[in-house]
Design a protein that fits this description.
The structure holds 3 protein chains of 3 kinds. By secondary structure, chain A is of the alpha/beta class. Chain A contains 4 helices and 7 strands. Chain A has a 5-stranded mixed β-sheet with strand order 1-2-5-4-3, with helices on one face. A two-stranded parallel sheet of chain A has the order 6-7. In chain A, α1 packs antiparallel against α3. The radius of gyration of chain B is 25 Å and the shape is elongated. Classes of the chains: A alpha/beta, B alpha+beta, C alpha+beta. Chains B and C meet through α1 of B and α2, α5 and α6 of C. The complex binds iron/sulfur cluster (2 copies). The site of one iron/sulfur cluster (SF4) has 15 residues of chain B, from α3.
Chain lengths: 196, 181, 376
Amino acid sequence: MSTVIDEVFEQFQKLLPPEDSVSTAPDAESGSASAGTAGDSETAASAAASEKAEPPPEPEPPCRRIERSRHGYDLELQAPPDRLIDAVSILDRAGFSLDIVSGADWPKDNQLEVLYDFFHWDGPHHITIRTRIPREKPEVPTISAIYPGALWHERETWEFYGIDFVGHPNLIHLILPDDQEGFPLRKDFKATDVDA
Amino acid sequence: MVAQVKEVVGGFMSLLTGMGITLREFFKPTVTIHYPRQTAKIPERFRGHIQFKPDPETGTSTCIACQLCAKACPSDCIELDGEKKPGAKRKSVTWFHLDFTTCSLCGACIEVCPVDALEYSKAYNLASTDKQQFHLIDLVHQLEERQARKKAATPVAPPPADTASSSAESSSTQNEQPAGN
Amino acid sequence: MSTPETTTSHSTGPQETFVLNLGPQHPATHGVLRVKLTMDGEFIENAEIVSGYIHREHEKMGENRNWEQFLPNTSRMDYLGAMMYTHAWCALAEKACGIEVPPRAEYIRVITSELNRISSHLVWWGAFLIDLGGMTPMLYAFDDREHILDLLEEITGSRLTYCYYRIGGVCEDVTDSFLAGTRQFIKDFRPRLKTYHKLVTENIILRKRLEGIGEIPAEMCRKYGATGPVLRGAGIAYDVRKAEPYGVYPDLQFDIPTFPEGDCMARYKVRMAEIEQSLRIIEQALDKLPDGPVMAKVPRAVKPPAGDYCMAVEGARGRFTIRAISNGTTTPYRVKLRTPCFCNLSCFEEACQGMLLADALALMGSLDLVIPDLDR
Ligand code: SF4
Ligand code: SF4
């Protein structure tokens, strides 16, 4: 119905073909691309899923449509960190505006997640890009070169989750004090009692 | 040149208009309420700290110490306990501590109560140099005090006339300190 | 950051700069916000916002209490526009659980939200003009705002941090005197608004002070995610109430005021025009207000199915988005609150470069900052 979403959907499909499903295993980006899949034109550096990482619950396609009336957004893309910049550039060209950069902690999978939300001036278009990274080495490239508004959001996500935004020019505390220890929004964070 | 003159004249006129408006307002009646000599009308639904509704017959609380309010409270500011008096069908409350320093006046406790034992008070003059006064308001104690005061007040004189609240019950609680020490 | 920090006691040469600290306690920052300004004489070379003085970690609180219990928190971020924020949280939970809100409640929400928007804009109007050196308008604005607060207090019991909406409706029905009072207010306020325009908007001093100052072009808004009057003051007709309609806003007629200049004056005019539009919305909602219940049947415990949920509303300052992740329990797994002040202020650092200090304060005032909204 909404053409902007369709356009972006198509481009996302090209960027990350559905059969090229993203592995959510922690060591996804260290693994080399396996031969035999359709994505052999891709460079080896791309985080194509290795076959053995196929999890028992069937893999979701990286790009899927979401029911807006229920969830409030239209499209979701599961992108590996090295495809992030490409995906965000697509949205930038399509005229999207930056809504949120946020994080989530999934200690059960030993992963952290970075969520990027974008909205459009022309109507109810809301797209989410999510990328999962291992907890030991939480690094994603910064998107602040494309959207300078992400500078603050990334600083905030860094201080609350300890996610390193590689290439960020000024990754310092924004909201928390400079001597803050630990990352408060991680699930294993224990607050020291201030009342004591 | 013409535009400049126009701007100067127009600008000057805009200043005069503004001054005219302030001058007109100057002679309008004041709208300020001179608290504490005057007090504003406290609306029926005003949310002060929570308090017990007195049972119309016994004058005590109807609370059955079910703990639902304590569980519903987002700020964890309610603590209470009750006991089953011999011969009674249900429990009754023995103490009920409200920590008003963290209460967010959300009304969750009032809405969740199965016997409708709680209500908002109309106390707005809450000021103290001692934080402890609001840390721990014992509602059971507070209700007893209120009832005692009411009993003492009703036969002698009507409640003060300047409190504009409608019911005698609420006006008697308006200017009191929350904790009964 | 690379400029050497010299103190003001040094005499500064032609190429030297000095660092000026604005805030954290400064009337122009409307709260505790600190700005580190690298100055070249009267001109700003670089600005760095230091925030977080009123941070309360609402997002973590959201992970520690259940869906209903988070409601009072939402009204404590943008304390001047509390209704809209509570609306966002309620609408999010309703959408996620598939709760149908009774139409009467939806109309009441619109009426109270728009009243709240007017009162918020009035505070901004008064405070902004104080920033610019005009004391009188604040007294006018607060007089009118007082009427709104009285109206809202009558039905909600509070004057600022309302906790009136519930997941599934509103907690109590409106009273007849509230409805009559609102109609009366609209009638009285329209001529007052005209007076405001005569008193302030047309004032030559104000115009000279704001026109052409502090331009934030539309493209910068897009890159920074600035919304609300800032974006509409850059000529873009974006309003969440129209772009992603929620509640009963699609049934109501209103325009999105835009001014293409992108300067402080444009943002000023947008807000003033928005007040008029809000009055229009309230009038229609009062006429259409249906009878019926104000609360839907809500399950005992709100438990949205596992998944991600987004809800955006148009706050008084712009787009407010809540992004919540549910894991199917009564407690949210993650709550992200995207507040308009955060994004609107983030372009300040870029927009104020090369400006005069006094103009930068006008720019800051025109962003309509509420610091708890920025810090959360
Ligand atoms: S009003 Fe809300 S915060 Fe206050 S005691 Fe009741 S439930 Fe707790
Ligand atoms: S919910 Fe009502 S009855 Fe139950 S403990 Fe609280 S006040 Fe008493």
